[in-house]
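Holo model, calcium ion. Inputs:
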Amino acid sequence: MFDELRDGEFDAFTDLLFNALVGFAFMFFIAFAMINPVAETGKIDTDVEILITMRWPDGHEDDVDVYVEDPVGNIVWYNDRETGLMHLDRDDRGQFKDVLLINGEEIENPLNQETVSVRGLMNGEYVVNVVHFIATSVDPLPVTVKVEKMNPSVRVIYYGEVELTGTGDEVTVARFTLQDDEIRDVNNRQKSLVEATRRTGPAGPGGDQDAATGEVVAQ
Ligand SMILES: [Ca+2]
Ligand SMILES: [Ca+2]
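Output:
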């Protein structure tokens, strides 16, 4: 009987040991499963397919605008910030209204940047323009533009700097043609998107817009 008891205790001990081992293996599996996604660097989980980032020098007071046309003629710009599958984050107007609220204090945000995200791809040509909306000095203004295709991994389609030379100056920075997953014919043949928006604009046919500001004029 004593031996039976001892055997029983021994069984209970091995059960405990086995359970602990299973527990450890399970925790190890969970830990490994949690670590694994982090280990896959270089991939970005996002539904943005193309990201266009335009920047000009921090703290500069000039107002620059980005315009992007998609293959079917939609044009995203500050007066039409959501069109087709494209979205403009905001109209950065240089230093105007560029303040951050930190602990109740207004701090000037030096960043000058506009970003367009494209959330679905279409075959055909995309056009990226920058426009010098307000120049505050006679000096040329360097503007940097980066166009990236995001999935399945980040590919830079275009990265470069252009100079804008005064109010109203418009430059086609990059044009590229998307054919399925291929990027073709990256060039900068000039094409005015300002003209196209003032012609059709969000007001539609017959709608008038102020030629200088692009604002829709009430009829
Ligand atoms: Ca702007
Ligand atoms: Ca700004």
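Residues 2-39 form the longest helix (38 residues). The chain has two domains: 1-39, 50-203.
Archived with the compound record.
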